[in-house]
Design goal:
With about 300 residues, the protein is of the alpha+beta class. The protein contains 7 helices and 19 strands. The C terminus is likely disordered.
Amino acid sequence: MTASLTLSGMLVLDKPCGITSRDAVNRLQRLVRPLRAGHAGTLDPAASGVLLTCIGDATRLVRILQLLPKTYLSRFTLGQSSDTDDATGQITQHATPDPLPDPVTVTTCLQRFSGVIAQTPPQWSAVHVNGQRAYHLARSGQEFTLSAREVEIHSINIHSFKWPHLDLSITCGSGTYIRSIARDLGQQLGCGALMASLQRTSIGPWQLSEALAADKLSHESLQQYLIEPVRLISHLPVYPCTAAEQESVRCGRRIPCSPDRLQAAPAAPADPSIALLSADHQQLLALAEADSDGLLQPRAVFLHSTTGN
């Protein structure tokens, strides 16, 4: 059985430890060929949890899905550090501090990571340095410096702390490295720290509890768990179109924006896109942006439904 060329949507996968995010997408790709498949936010091989995977026209939504906040459960090991900032690298054992950091001290240090902060990515990361991935340079032993970047930490809370294990729940914006938080916390405490484990429990409204295990992917589970594109844009402003406007949108033509029909997003979105919907709100027609003339210009047009065979 092959995928219908009209199949489009998103699957919330539970990626296990030990495979790359691309490995998980490849499992999906084999089911939906010749359609495209992609993911919205990489998880390292040692990490597990929510991986949003899109197929067909819905791959055009990857860019805006990547901007959604993400929540992680992570265990930090204090008293250790590594060249990768996690337990997969070359680990250095530090002297046990006396006295040990107490919960109040740890909480005070963690508060410094809340909000918009400047964060330096790990040396072993996918960040580009002069056209090359940082981890390629690190693997070859080359010396290089990574610049700090602004990231946003929405919340960071202690679940449990018993030396040397610190379990945290962290909700953050796109581009945040949890490994970097572990490294920087260890430096502030003066005892070193690394990320021992990581599980992503949610991206936006999609929770781990509703995710499909990657090894359960099949044509049947694909049909059962597929989320149609119109359900993926609830965080964007929406604009329902008349029948005449729908035809213009399908041809990529600009349409006037009637302010009384433009429905604001529940919170300020990180992307300027406006979702153009059918009049009954049942179909995503396009992502558009308002131009200088106040017209809505389609940027990505969705012609396909979610039916399969």
